[in-house]
Design a protein that fits this description.
By secondary structure, the protein is mainly alpha-helical. The protein is built from 6 helices and no strands. The chain starts with a helix and ends with a helix.
């Protein structure tokens, strides 16, 4: 027999898990900023692995809930799409940090700070957008936040051009250029993932308005 109480309970659980997933994205951004500001001797990667593992557990729990729930607050494919998009963010951050610490002689941490701060701003905005799903936010409110994500992505593109201009100036050895370019491109990709995830949230809000 259909239980209204159980339906509301499952709805809250989905929203709780999605909010937790967006929180892990923001936590990974905070850890990245901290890593860049931390002296080399004290830099560690274990926290990034923790955020990625937590995100995977959240994804697995959502997948189980989708199988066991009779109904969902939003369509299953939308939940799956948003969950996957959120999962990819801490996973890519962990990969970026692993590679960043592999080449201490060819990178300076402060070179990545501006991109990391843009990423932090993007995850803060994304977290607010995901939280709005539970509250049936006003379309204009979510659209404004999504436009802010788009502007962050645009700033990231402009910053990337400035970074490439410096890399191609002839002041750096070829190996340094290759390593730094790949790292900057990966960090830009992370910011792009935030924009893509925001588009999914915006689509869901429009769909159920």
């Amino acid at each position: 027999m259909f239980s209204l109480q159980r339906w509301f309970s499952n709805s809250d659980k989905f929203y709780d898990l999605l909010s937790a997933a967006s929180e892990e994205c923001h936590n990974s951004a905070l850890e990245l900023v901290n890593l860049i500001k931390t002296p080399a001797a004290e830099q560690r990667l274990d926290k990034f692995a923790d955020h990625r593992r937590k995100q995977k557990r959240i994804r697995d729990e959502i997948s189980t809930l989708l199988v066991t729930s009779f109904s969902t607050p939003i369509e299953r494919e939308d939940i799956e799409s948003l969950t996957l998009a959120l999962y990819k963010i801490p996973k890519t951050v962990e990969r970026f940090c692993e590679r960043l610490l592999l080449s201490p002689n060819h990178v300076q941490m402060e070179d990545f700070l501006k991109q990391a701060l843009l990423f932090d701003d993007a995850t803060q905005t994304l977290r607010k957008m995901v939280d709005k799903l539970r509250r049936h936010a006003d379309i204009e409110e979510v659209r404004d936040m999504n436009e802010h994500l788009q502007s962050i992505e645009g700033e990231g593109d402009k910053l990337m051009l400035e970074l490439l201009k410096d890399l191609y100036s002839g002041r750096h050895d070829p190996l340094t250029v290759i390593i730094r370019r790949q790292l900057h491109e990966t960090l830009e990709k992370i910011i792009d993932r935030c924009r893509t995830t925001g588009n999914i949230v915006n689509y869901i809000v429009l769909k159920y308005s």
